[in-house]
Amino acid sequence: MRFLPGSGRPTVAVVGFGYVGSCVAGTLADRGLDVIGIDSDQRLVEELDRRECRFNEEGLARLLFAGLDAGRLRVTTDLAEAARADVVLITVGTPVRDDGSLADAQLRGAARDLAPHLRAGQLVVLKSTVPPGTTRDLLRPLLEAGGLVAGEDFGLAFSPERLAEGTALRELRTFPIVTGGLTADCAESAAGLWREALGVEVLPMDTLEAAEIVKLADNWWIDLNIALSNELAKLCGVYGADVLDVIAAANTIPKGTGNVNILLPSVGVGGSCLTKDPWMVWRTAREHGLRFQTAPAGRQVNAGMPGYTASLVLAELAAQGKDPAESVVAVLGLAFKNDTGDLRATPVAGVVEALRAAGVTVRLHDPLVDAGAAAGLFGQLPEPSVEEAVRGADAVAVLALHRDFRGIDFAALPVASGCVLLDGRAYYPKEKIAELRAAGYVYRGIGRGPAAAKDPAAVRAVPSVPRSVRLLEAG
Ligand code: NAD
Fold this sequence. Notes:
It is built from 18 helices and 15 strands. Helix content is 41%, strand content 12%. It has helices at residues 19-30, 42-49, 60-70, 105-114, 134-144, 168-174, 184-198, 208-239, 243-250, 277-287, 294-303, 305-319, 348-357, 371-378, 386-390, 430-438, 456-460, 467-473; strands at 12-15, 35-38, 73-76, 87-90, 123-126, 155-158, 177-181, 202-204, 254-255, 258-259, 328-332, 361-365, 395-398, 420-423, 442-445. Strand 1 (12-15), helix 1 and strand 2 (35-38) form a beta-alpha-beta unit. The structure holds nicotinamide-adenine-dinucleotide. Residues 15-21, 38-41, 44, 91-94, 106, 109-110, 113, 128-129, 161, 163, 165, 272-273 line the site of nicotinamide-adenine-dinucleotide (NAD).
């Protein structure tokens, strides 16, 4: 049995109207589908009714408001509305607990509330990132508690969401979509949905679990790759080699189905996905007696980057004989990456904390971030403009290069003489760095800048080859 109407465009309910849910719903409405957005957060629904969008994603507010104005998109807190839909997408949050296990309250809550409203013939697709087995073993029984049987009365599938904030809307219309179904009919129905609704390539997997693992594989790889890049940047920093040149050259040899593809180093990895999904992998493996090392290794390296970034600023201040306790550092960009206003797990928090611990006075600015949310996280209100943030600053740390920051005329900023320009995620080209130096700035990037002075204590502290390595070498 196919779980989609044979003709006509399906009506889609999106349960969980957060970052992902709103991007998916806005895109589907824009493509002409009728969409019902459902979220338990009454305030979020009221904001949208007032045509306010809390997510700072390029183009999203326009898309959502156009859908709402045209009546193709409706938002509500009432899960009973899902009964009117042909397809129900679940996009609630799936954080992990401290031990890496799934904090499943949102998923359980949504499934329990949805179950009594399911109708025969509907297709339910989970899009939230979950440990393998979750769709089959957790979601399915909760939905079946409503009296219908998955795979017979209603369809059940998993299609991970793989968009990245900052480029979400473009990616939603272009990325291939992975699908896995409880039965072959469920899988075919989900594949048909995405082909019809988004017109993108569909990658059918044999099982629900395979589809669930694809998403984890993507983020596990991305986090670990960035960790390699961050350590590469530290190595380049020792020799004054420009890590961007090294990566560009290293990435020119073919390997596997593409080239070597080292990603970019930065102030750190943040956001609600890359900081948790590797732990989901680790925990799942552990529950099956597997002791994985790569996922935690990536997390550990990347979690250390904010502290490393702060140490670069402090070293430059020290080189100029400046006392941190009398120094001001302006941080431009508080969000976890460029072109988003999302503060979740932002590495900037760690940089600010480390600078403050050294006695530095920190000023903050981010045009995309909600000022109240920033004050809550950082314990101080951000400055309203770049100029006010950098006035008299001994260092300016560009930790997210939003579009608004791309045209900053650094030469005209009222900074202290010999101001350090710490490039945490701007990746300024060499000509720009030369301009900055000509304007009197001391430039330092992650893995970019003059060679660091050799620390003799560090050389003495190098341990011998770890025993495990020697054992490996001995076969
Ligand atoms: P989010 O926290 O922004 O949104 C979750 C929404 O679900 C919230 O608005 C919340 O109020 C709502 N919700 C919670 N319980 C509910 C319930 N019982 N009924 C109705 N609504 C409920 O999370 P997000 O960033 O959109 O992420 C959603 C999922 O997508 C997660 O699994 C995440 O890992 C995954 N994901 C996120 C991104 C990203 O960039 N944010 C990218 C790819 C995948």
